[in-house]
Fold each of these.
Amino acid sequence: MIKLVGLTKSYGKTLAVDHLDLSVARGEIFGFIGPNGAGKTTTIRMAAGVLGPTAGQVFIDGIPMADRPEEAKRVIGFIPDRPFLYEKLTGMEFLRFVADLYGCGDGDFRQRAEGLLIRFSLYDWADHLIEAYSHGMRQRLVIASALLHEPKLIIVDEPMVGLDPAGIRMVKDLMRGLAGRGTTIFMSTHTLQIAEDLCDRIGIIHRGRLIALGTTGDLKGTALLQEGDLEEVFLRLTGEAEPPAGDGPPGQRGGP
Ligand SMILES: Nc1ncnc2c1ncn2[C@@H]1O[C@H](COP(=O)(O)OP(=O)(O)OP(=O)(O)O)[C@@H](O)[C@H]1O
Ligand SMILES: [Mg+2]
């Protein structure tokens, strides 16, 4: 469903993503984890077609993003980490706007939009301006808007940030339900427990490179680690558990 081939992005001297190769199968929930600045958002934005790679290719359901971006993006529901919302629209108007962008603003739009608003506990807020929404409500609205055109692939950057426990549960259940019906989910998260609970496979990215890939069980069983939870695996692989030795101070790489 998603295939990244030699995907690379540099910003000046900073190599944000370094020859990444990755495939995610249909119906799979794939979680991308890595420390701050590892290259998760950069990878996700390239996969969603909103950022052009320096080198390498993105294929969505076999469609090359570089050559047929509109076709590829039609398959995707993209939920960015810092979504842009028009404050002066109501929730329902925003959904209509997004539906029109995807060319699915007619027919059963109203029914689908209402269904999503109910599911995301926003129905009572449908006719209120977005400027009055809390952070979590905005996040839920953005997720709802990404589902309007019934995408086969959902690409989501940090989906749980700002959600309360009920919101997290709602999104987890939603993702499991979607994956159960064949939707593919490609997500990044900082919350290792969420990755462990939700994802069929996990990739650990560090300094732009994929340094581990597999099920949680696989990762725990790597030669490096005989036991310990995902947090321990993560901290050891990314070297965050120990003070940096001979590797310069944290944040040295690629700083302005
Ligand atoms: N627009 C940009 N211009 C210059 N450098 C950038 C830009 N965007 C990202 N970078 C750099 O690319 C690297 C990867 O950043 P990215 O945002 O992909 O990391 P991330 O894994 O999403 O981090 P976080 O966990 O903090 O969200 C960092 O070194 C960052 O400073
Ligand atoms: Mg990020």
Note: The two ends are 36 Å apart (CA to CA).
Amino acid sequence: MRFTNLTRTAGIGSNCYRLDLENDSVILDCGMHPEHVGRDSTPLLENLGNNDIRSTILTHAHQDHVGCLPLLQSQHPVMPVLMTAGTARIADVMLHNSVNVMMRQQEQLSLSEPPLFGHRGVEQAARRWRTCPLERPLTLDGDRASHESQDPTVTFYDAGHILGSAGVMIRAEGKKFFYTGDVNFQDQTIQTGARFPEEPVDVLVMETTRGDAVLPDDFTRQKEEERFSTAVAAALNKGASVTIPVFALGKTQEVMALVWRMQQEKIIPATPIYVGGLSSKITAIYDSMASMVPRKLPQLHLMDAVAPYIAGSQEIQSLNPRKRAIYALSSGMMSEHTLSNIFVRKVLPDPAQYLFFVGYADPNSPAGAVRRAEQGSSIQLGEQGDTVPFNCHREEFIFSAHSRREDILNYAIKVRPKTILLVHGDQAAIEWFTRKLYEALPGTTVLSPPPGIPIEL
Ligand SMILES: [Zn+2]
Ligand SMILES: [Zn+2]
């Protein structure tokens, strides 16, 4: 077995990994860096050359795991791509949206290179997707494995991160290789915690997103939900609006479910909630699959129960944040030209407004800049250098879709891998895990695989 990290830069970005087995090579995830454009946003696909790739396996449909899949598939047109049914439904929407974003960027940034792929490329790619059930060994083509000892096989396990998310076990050459993808072991408002296998494995590839996130000792999700409810209620009762920059996939649906519950429990008054077009499409997929996937509140159909207003980039310009409402707008990082970036320009300067953060943001993104900013300072929200004064209320809440670090550490200790490969994390996060894992598992080799360098397992 040989593992190669194909993520172009260290950290969280264009996540993509290659696993070479005795006779087959597989690719795990094929993401796009959300803060870069063109070739810089892609994994090291040029390293694949003309090599035959047997299949690609996707853990979930977030952009940093799926974004460059059509590019990879255009280089390997007959290769099957294995994923859960939820991931397939969402990936289709995410990738078509990504084409629109790339076309807009090309115009706005006057890029000389065309978009990495178009709508037709996504349609062609989707024909090779194979939807896979959870907890059932499959061949690398996605067919049901014919007998127990078949080799190699791939098995998907619910990862509790977003709809469709999975960790992947590959059994080959008498070894067990497990890749967590993005994982959450705790329940969220909709998503139930991961159900991962607990048998010993040889190799564990694990995400480390929250390795440097220290939680208060008395932290519980329930207390955090109460703190959030109180803060939202206080703002709305003053007649103000609350703006929450969120990822269109996952966090939007979690926030909508929380708002629904607060309204049911009469903690907050009936308040209009605004979301973007992409968010509403993904929410409709959550609704249509509610009874088919592991989740809480399977009867809750958010598009009916919460009935959000759907805003495009034109409407969002005309909305007045001084009218009481909740704005759950993507992107979560407040990337330039997105709804949250446009709308927050009206929110930031106004001391009567409330801006709440509920998830991860790249420190280098506009959301990262706002989270660090001092009251009264000016913040740059785009490349053009225009700045916006920061006077509004700002509060942060911890509703991460990623596991707390102690939970992932405990999982690693439980499955006692011979080798652990740390991925999907900043330097400080990886350092914390390296230190803790060496203490807890002294016989285990712990590596942070540098981009492009093969590691023999
Ligand atoms: Zn993710
Ligand atoms: Zn990710």
Note: The chain has two domains: 2-213+404-456, 221-396.
